[in-house]
Amino acid sequence: MDKGALLDRLGLAGEDRLALAKVLDKAEQASERNIPAATDFLSPQQRAQALDLLHLAGISESAYVLQGGYEGAERQVLQFLPDWMEPESAEAPIRCLRAVFREEEKLSHRDFLGSLMGMGIVREKVGDILVAPGSADLLVLEGVADFLLQSWNSAGRAKLRVSAIEPENLHIPTVQRKEVRDTVSSLRLDAVAASGFRLARGKAAALIESGKVQLNWRECVKPDKLLEAGDVVSARGFGKFELGEVGGLTRKGRVSIVLRVYV
Fold first, then answer.
1. Which of 56, 117, 241, 252 has the fewest CB atoms within 10 Å of its CB?
2. Does one domain contain both 191 and 256?
3. CA–CA separation, 123 and 171 (whole Å)
């Protein structure tokens, strides 16, 4: 199956289609030239689409690795491996930078991203931005790291001191989640989403059918989709939660669940 047909099978269009076409280009490059080839950073949704695409194309999971610079990174690159390279020996084409500023400046993720975009750095070249009081650690592709080290000196009105750091020195913030215990009539997506997003079930179903809900970073428009423990549900404007645990039935025949809601 050719590239266009594969992308058509997944119903991809616009920026996602372009990003996934580049994924196939990198897979082909690694295979034909017998050298490692890495994509730009992919969002969680693009990553899920890419894995679906590679499965559809018949590309083995042993032919690539996902790398984000640290365990649990949200934005990651796909690196395709030649036959002679083992996954554990694949070096990520990622550099770690730290931008230090005065703590009272209270810069946000948006401040840093806006500053980078203003310098002409496209989003695909930047991975996670880990903001802490007085500093922000960034994962960036090798191709832009030196430019940022030499030229990036401000975000908004705040002055920055930017330096390279080793991955083991990253300041990785603790993911903030709260546990919510509830009961639902079933493990259907609309029932669980109604609990997680604090909506009436009918409104949750309408939100799902409108294409605004993602299940494990993939769009899902089926309110009756059954969930399992570990599934992640998100919707723009409503947040994200994980179905952490599924318990037994209550006396009224409802299912006990534990949701881990990201805050």
1. 252
2. yes
3. 21
Euclidean distance between CA atoms 93 and 236, whole angstroms: 30
Which of 72, 89, 106 delimits the end of a domain? 89
Q: Same domain, yes or no, for 204 and 161?
A: no
**Residue 136 pLDDT exceeds 70:** yes
pLDDT score of 1 more than 70: no
109 contact partners, CB below 8 Å, separation of at least 6:
129, 131, 136
In the three-class reduction of DSSP (H, G, I as helix; E, B as strand; rest coil), residue 77 is classed as strand
Q: pTM for this structure?
A: 0.88
Q: Reduced to 3 states, what is the DSSP secondary structure of residue 206?
A: helix
CA distances in angstroms from 236 to 102, 212, 229, 233, 240, listed in the order given: 32, 7, 22, 11, 9
User: Stretch 70-96: mean pLDDT, rounded?
Assistant: 94
How many alpha carbons lie under 13 Å from residue 5 in its C-beta half-sphere? 4
At 3 the pLDDT is: 84
**Which of 89, 122, 141 is the C-terminal boundary of a domain?**
89
Domain extent at residue 140? 94-169
